[in-house]
Design goal:
The chain has two domains: 103 residues, no CATH class; 154 residues, Rossmann fold (3-Layer(aba) Sandwich). 38% of the residues lie in helices and 22% in strands. It contains eight helices and eleven strands. The strands form two sheets. It has a six-stranded mixed β-sheet. Strands 8-7-6-9-10 form a five-stranded parallel β-sheet, sandwiched between helices. α4 packs parallel to α5. The relative contact order is 0.12. It holds the Pfam family XdhC_CoxI.
């Protein structure tokens, strides 16, 4: 009973603090193993609670869990391990681990530009499950106080910021510089692993960008991933607040749809590979 209340209390602590974590559970054991079925471990990006027995099995489990956190994975997965010599454990049995992402997984957002629309948009995004990097070269354009969950980045090299963001990032580009918008678009499309990309601009601007992107070798499929004009089409307003609400609505619709797809997917079962033996 003590073990059960222990992991529940640890999990509740992380959830109350809004810290994403992965609950690792031994769901099956065969032969000699370091811990019995039901044993749990909680892994965050920077800490560890409880143990599934130590050794290389635990090391591998921590690495898998932290990769899931880095990727923002919400779908549980199962991994099978043979506790042979290559895992550095002499038990000789086999273990099946269940990895369950827990807690709130904030959507990473990179917002380029600190103009009127961006200043209206950031408070809306900050009120959502988003972690925002707000990027511009003009420090005077940022408000004096930023909402929680927003990091101000003043840089003359915004293209470098594209490369620092994790897989699945939502990119939003609304700078005051059209050539920079095009460069950012090229850099973001070249990554190919973003969760969403919205570019502010008129249909005329986007038509010109499409032509230039195609001339630089981007495929029609790549170009079609860009939302431009961005935002919910039914909202036609031109005021900064109206555009901001439209964009925030599209962000919500996107991450809600992605979450629904993940929840509808069957439990991911990863068969044993040579790396586990």
């Amino acid at each position: 009973m003590k073990n059960v209340t222990g992991w529940l209390a640890e999990l509740a602590t992380f959830e109350s603090q809004g810290i994403p974590c992965v609950l690792v559970t031994i769901v099956e054991e065969k032969g000699s193993t370091p811990r019995n079925a039901g044993t749990k471990m909680i892994v965050t990006a920077e800490s560890l609670r409880l143990t599934i027995g130590g050794g290389h099995l635990e090391y591998k489990a921590i690495a898998i869990a932290r990769q899931m956190l880095k990727e923002g994975t919400r779908q549980p997965r199962i991994e099978r391990f043979s506790l042979g010599a290559s895992l550095g454990q002499c038990c000789g049995g086999a273990t099946v681990l269940l990895f369950e992402p827990m807690g709130q997984h904030n959507v990473p957002v990179a917002l380029f530009g600190a103009g009127h629309v961006a200043r209206a948009l950031v408070p809306l995004l900050a009120s959502l499950p988003c972690e925002i990097r707000w990027i511009d070269s003009r420090t005077e354009e940022f408000p004096d106080t930023l909402p929680a969950g927003v990091t101000k980045v003043v840089t003359d090299d915004p293209l470098d910021e594209v490369d620092t963001m994790p897989s699945g990032t939502y990119f939003i580009v609304m700078t005051h510089n059209h050539p920079l918008d095009l460069e950012l678009t090229e850099r973001i499309l070249a990554r190919g692993d973003f969760g969403y990309y919205g570019l502010i601009g008129s249909k005329t601007k986007w038509a010109k960008f499409q032509h230039r992107l195609a001339a630089k070798g981007f495929t029609a499929e790549q170009i079609a991933q860009v939302r431009c004009p961005l935002g919910i089409p039914q909202i036609k307003g031109k005021l900064p607040a109206e555009i901001a609400i439209s964009v925030a609505g599209e962000v919500i619709a996107t991450y809600s749809a992605q979450a629904t797809l993940e929840e509808a997917s069957p439990l991911r079962l990863v068969q044993p590979t040579h790396n586990h033996f």
